[in-house]
């Protein structure tokens, strides 16, 4: 067999997702008129199949395709969680899309392609494959955001996202090209090896790292590169917003691991400084501006900025425990946002978008179970003890204190307390305010509500027994440093 | 190409001589192709065609050329003067440039370049700029409509054309036009590429008709709908250049089809009876036959409607060519490889 | 060799001149045509380098297809140029500063990094075929990114169609299948018109 095809089996999950995305596209084209559910059902099967295939690859590691694709524990774990995230989005999506007349197969096809982009990023061992994965993800996202083309806000959000996203890709690419110029190779491992001979004060290296970190910060949604988040989160169809807050964040986290840790761990001090600045700005901006928001989607967007601040605390720590806790935080954040946006999806009905905080007034009287689930979600986001959100924050604080940045941890705790205010306000509105008279009935949606119940209760269960998930994250970080 | 420059200035002069040797007969050929067209279509429609100037009309093209030369070039009032005059040149120059790579025999070409196939494909696509610029610069709605139609049509058919050439490339394993012909040597007409690549042969020739804006794909002119389309405002020599470009392109497409699919300069049956005739004669005979088909098609088919052209290009030709590429690719991996190559 | 050098400077000068004209031209159609000219000269430079495949593909794809569509759109739009050009001068210093910064950075990279010290390539072998060389690399070593790039294009197609295609009611499009499937009895019914018996 040709050398470049050695170990090609490492790419089987990617190949499976690609083939199935095409199958979904064709099936929807020919059967979609008669069987409207064919695309989502096939998508669910695809995700389950991919999970099985990835599961079989657990424990293997190595590179393939001439070193462009790497399989290691991080690849496996990150891919498994990406499948889970997309699966949740698909399960939440059906009624919302139907109500808005955009229940079309292309949404699911684009979701699968976006997932493929995440997978390529997560398993990228070469600047080329990482960048192409990023573009695949980004292009699918632009189309998804603007998918409801009759909605003015959605198209505006799509265009805004497109322009800013292209700029961010440009920044990242420029940083990559400088890195390439400096080291003469595109392969991350070789870059790491070549950087040994470069002093950390090298001007080009600093420029390259600034550009790369700026690009990553944009994709992650860290302040001051967060300008797109609120508008896009609010403007996009909520199903798409749910997706934006899930698998792509795992992909963005993979950018950090692949570019900065795999490639630039030798240059830790150089980019650590930049990350400290990002963390501080994100924590402040995210948690303070979120207080002023009346729209829940916007509030969750700013809360995303805040969460990104917290998870970068773990990256600032720069230790294995730090990266593991940051990964843990990322996964927890994904689960929380899935649940948060899932709740909006559940309360939404045709012609009515339950995305104002006022729409949650008196939810405990209208639907006590939903109110309870929302309580768990908000507690988890705020970091109140029995939930997993608390444990995630605890882990990053521990890591950053262990690395000697006590002052950062103190600021983090302070802003977490401030941030708790706006999450608890939602709880207050649900339990202590009377429902608005014009709030209509809550439409019954068994599939989404069952998913949401599992999703939210998972936040509670994982908070009580966080051990296995944490162990999984530590497993993922094996061999990364 | 490097050797070419290193051999000194006289090489430049030598290539100018070669260019003249190709271009002068080409322009004569264009002139008499117009006569042939009027005669052939005339007979098909039970008329005589031109029969007054010279012996049975044989001097008609000369008379036409003289007439066009002495006519005034009128520039419409609010036309863009510079682009209006540049457009015919933009149409005419690519029509001549493509001939640089055309082989007339084994290694007989102005430039027997390695990527000849790619070169002709790239340059042949440039002619459309003349049409688009003419349509826009004329400041006339009919001209503009013609230009828009030409642009859309070109993009649609160039893809199918490119795919058809990919098939040739797969069998010949080279982009050099001379070597492509040599790869078809061996037997007679059954070893030429038209047989294994029959769908490509058809698609390429029909796309060629479309790319040259000839009937039934002449919507860019479309006399009955948009008067004369992109060249409605042109007169005199400016108009003549468009005319020359169109006919030169016809000859070129026929010759290239011969080279790619009909065995170039090889005789149809490999016997001494036929092979003593020089290859150039065979090449020109096959080209002449395809040119006749051009005229035949024009006399036979009514003009396509615009949406039908798009449908044929996008929904028929492109899928057909892609499917046949797959077929050829698979066949090349089987024992049939020996027969095909 | 001297001809090659002259040609190099000629093509480079036209390339730079037309590239400048692209951003300074007042008329968008002129700008597009200058861009075509720039592509053409860039292709010529590639060919001078012996990279005929890249040069010809540049012409084929960008000049032959992309720019035709660009012109198609630009000619249809009625762009108000004076409004577009407003603020050009006020943004110019910032833009120039960024451009100069970028150039400086690249220059530093080339001076200090291994890329700046790569030995000049040896003479091109007589039977060099860079089409084949590129193909072999793309389909072996770079197979994976090549395929991903293909998927990106597929996504672009799907996205473009999903965002723009809509089936409007009441348009009079032709249904070829229905036309072909028609039989005489669908269109003509024979009626017995014999005069009744009197």
Automatic annotation (TrEMBL), chain B:
Topology of the protein relative to the lipid bilayer: Multi-pass membrane protein
UniProt keywords, alphabetically: Cell membrane, Membrane, NAD, Quinone, Translocase, Transmembrane, Transmembrane helix, Ubiquinone
Enzyme class, spelled out: translocase
An example Gene Ontology biological process: aerobic respiration
Chief location of this protein within or outside the cell: membrane
Gene Ontology CC annotations of this record: plasma membrane
Compartment list: Cell membrane; Membrane
Subunit structure: NDH-1 is composed of 14 different subunits. Subunits NuoA, H, J, K, L, M, N constitute the membrane sector of the complex.
Protein name listed in UniProt: NADH-quinone oxidoreductase subunit H
Species whose genome carries this gene: Acidithiobacillus thiooxidans
